[in-house]
Amino acid sequence: MPQTPIRIIGAGIGGLTLGRCLLKYGIPAVLYERKPSSPCHDYGITLHAPSYLPLLDILRIDEFTFRRRMAVDGLLSGGGNIEPGFFATPKRINSTSFRAHRGKFEKLLCEGLDIQWGNSLEKVEEAPSGMILHMQNGQKLESTCIIGADGPHSITRKSLSPNTSFNVLPYVAFNGARHVKRELYNSVYAPAFNGSIVIRKKQGDKLLNLFVNEQQEDAVSISWTFSRPARSSIDPLHRPNRPVSEATNIPKEFFDEIEQLHGLDQPFKGVFDIERLQKERVLHWLMRTVLVSHQELCTLANKGVFFIGDSVHAEPILGGEGANNAIIDGMELAKCISKFGQGGIATWYDSRYPAWKDGIGKSEQAIALMHR
After folding, report:
1. Alpha carbon of residue 227 to chain centroid
2. Do 44 and 102 contact (CB within 8 A), yes or no?
3. How far is it, in rounded angstroms, from Cα 262 to Cα 163?
4. Is the Cα dihedral 111, 345, 147, 287 positive or negative?
5. Each residue of 255-306: pLDDT tens digit?
6. Contact, 112 vs 271, CB < 8 A?
7. Bridge-partner residues for 285, per DSSP?
8. pTM (predicted TM-score)
9. Which helix (H) or strand (E) is 131 found in, with range?
10. Residue 73: closest CA among 218, 223, 216, 209
11. Cis (ω within 30 of 0) for the bond into 229?
């Protein structure tokens, strides 16, 4: 068991879950997060029972209380209910699956953890005594156990596995959010949602999704997605090589395409109103996967560097199970470290890697099914 704290890069769902589980096992850990304070991710995520139920013992909370506190409509005594038919893979969905508010979930996971907010990683460097973390504030931290949980754009991975690249899937996707006054929601949105918190509409291979992110007494936060398969290599809406910084640069062709949607009923008609969309923040999403090779993971493990979640096996936002994968990785890795120390992580990779590879394949099948 390492005497110095395990250094976890990233305080997202995976890193926080890992940190909470290590705390439960009495293993010291420090998390380093580039964001200046606990972020309020004001959107919903789908949680499935196999991921969140085992976590409840760690969090010392019962299922009813957990769902009531985390559900996107929990403030109004809702349970984040999802209609199984909404998903391309309905077998994953049952009455124990629900939509949770990510910000509330992460706030719960943060409790009791040593998190250094606003302390981002610049690069990782190998040294004779171990690995050195170069932080953007000038710190140089030596460590014999580093765990990269810093998401699909992982600096940890890019530093040590620079040849691992994204696989960009041939889909166009855009996302936005809106706050709706309670009166409008009750009269226009609620009848369409009909007790669920997700609804969808298809026009050919174009898919429109609406999600409830959070219900409050006077307003409701919703988000939307527009997606379709890429048309060809010259599709103006499919920009597989765009940098992260250009995610908000929305081409005119997007609004032209939205304008061509005809016969939309409410609430889709109001959400996809061109004049409103042009005034709001719209994001261009790339549907990407990442999988670090098993051999490279084992090589880095021998040097004291490990990975979980999207930093090592990312799935696309649409069709993927990133949040659930991160929870399971965090719980299982903490259990491995508590039993076998970091020396057992290479064997843990052996057991988890087939599921990671299979998950990416299933996510690609799921996004294809969505758009048929």
Report:
1. 18
2. yes
3. 45
4. negative
5. 999 999 989 999 999 999 999 999 999 999 999 999 999 999 999 999 999 9
6. no
7. 173
8. 0.94
9. strand 130-135
10. 216
11. no
